[in-house]
Amino acid sequence: MTAEWVGLAGFNALPEAAAVAVLLSCCSSPDWARSLVAGRPYAAVDAVLDAADAVLAGLSDDEIDRALDGHPRIGARPDTAASAREQAGVAGAEDAVRTGLAAGNLAYEEKFGHIYLVCATGKSGQELLDLLTARLGNDPETERRVMRRELAKINRIRLARLLGDSA
Fold first, then answer.
1. Helices (H), 69-124
2. What is the C-alpha separation between 141 and 155, in angstroms, rounded?
3. Model's pTM, two decimal places?
4. Could you say which of 17, 34, 105, 151 has the lowest number of CB atoms within 10 Å?
5. CB-CB contact of 161 with 5 (8 Å)
């Protein structure tokens, strides 16, 4: 059992503090992690994923900001194996794309007050830059909804990997 994979049965059996710690590796919102742990035992991975979405939808903006704290900027050096895997498409990006992401991240943070969060899995650096550029046109309320949806996607991918049938 590792932080990368515990399986559903292993997750259901973990002591409460250990289960919260494992979930914090997926999403750094303590309220989200504690709420999911309180719902154990889960009969299936899909039940955990559905509960994760429901809990996320009910989190306050302050708690969403805590969740964002656990994510590096798109294009920055990933700080976890999960982030590195998710941002693999940026690794081979041209310098112009990397420069565009860096400038776009700053413009985004200035406009919205939080990092640009996108489910980067399977996307190239150019795709991530194009999405960033498009999202800069959103108003703050719209962008907050988009960011929450992207966070939910990331959480689902990480949870599925953590709880799935194989490592």
1. 81-86, 88-91, 95-112
2. 21
3. 0.93
4. 17
5. yes
| Per-residue buried b or exposed e for 129-138, using 16+ beta carbons within 10 Å of the residue's own CB | bebbeebeeb
The token pair at 24 is: 């914090």
Question: Per the structure block, which two tokens stand in for 90?
Answer: 């940026």
Instruction: Give the rounded percent of residues in the chain with a pLDDT score beyond 90.
Output: 84
Q: How many other CB atoms sit within 10 Å of the CB of residue 155?
A: 23
The residue with tokens 């059996």 is 13
Q: Which two tokens stand for residue 40?
A: 């154990």
**33 touches 41 (CB < 8 A):** no
Query: In which band, very low, low, confident or very high, does the pLDDT at 167 lie, cut at 50, 70 and 90?
Result: very low
Q: Which two tokens stand for residue 19?
A: 């289960």
Buried b (16+ CB within 10 A) or exposed e, 52-74: bbebbeebeeebbebbbebbebb
Give the C-alpha separation, 35 to 48, whole Å: 11
